[in-house]
Amino acid sequence: MGVLYATAAGYSTTPSMTNYTFSTRVFTGGNASSWTLSPPSLAGATVNTWYQCSYAVTETTAAGGTGTPSFGTPTPRVTGFGGVITLDENEIDIDNLVDDSNIRTYASYAGTGLDSSGRMKVGLISGGVAVTVAEMRETKSRAYAGLSTDGDVARVVAGEYGGFGADMSGATGAISFSSGTPSAGTLPASVGGTGVTSDTTWKNSKITTKADGSLNYDGTTAVAPSLASLAGIVGKAGGGMGEDISSATGILRMASGTLNKDSALSTTYTDATDNGTTINTSGNIAGTVDIASGGSITVGNITIDGTNNRILITD
Q1: Considering the entire predicted model, what is its pTM?
Q2: Residue 266 has what pLDDT?
Q3: Which single residue of 140, 159, 227, 291 has CA 20 to 30 Å from 203?
Q4: How far apart are CA 262 and CA 95, in angstroms?
């Protein structure tokens, strides 16, 4: 025996189910979908339009598990507000009361410190220590933010939130970034560092000269530069010839800054003067030759002796 409840307001058609299974408490056949063993919520203005109906089931065969049900006449669950509620207290769902416009859920939480959804409103006491909801909310916020109970950061903070995005607790050296990724070690020259772990390459005291004029940066003993060690050709403006003469033969002659290489003295020389003595284009002395005191000129077997003021002709 028991009570069935209509699944819709105003439904009062007598149940017509033809079978009942005891193990599952399920009715089948007829209008089984219109009746339920669980009482639907009562809605204020329509409370007296919901119907219920008694039933009884006799097992068809002993221990067979099924039987044919019989039903009473459907009656209103409630006779109306202001009247008498015909259901006993066990048939009223105190945790799901319904009025005209609001569902009053979890009324049984009243006086427990919980809201209508069963959530804590005030706090709790653990080990004699009271913890308020505000304190629990702060703890939750810290947990989401990766903070310890002391407020210290306790997890890796992503770069977009101001952190490194990596655990740097064991890092050594300068921290630099490349496309947002941090690394520890030497600071690259591209961001103002030296890119090295030693001061060898950037101290002035480590700079020395090589024989070819280039520089050492590691403190190697300096060598005086020499023209023979210089790579390349020394320009004329720097005191060189301006071209490779290592295989040249003959006489080198400069004309208006241009280097000429002649096989012999050229007869195109203009007159030249040395200490007042004129040499013509033929290479002959034209004019007076002065011999300084103590000097001499020897041409073949003729010597002009400036020391003794004489001319010697030898055989």
Answers
A1: 0.28
A2: 57
A3: 227
A4: 123
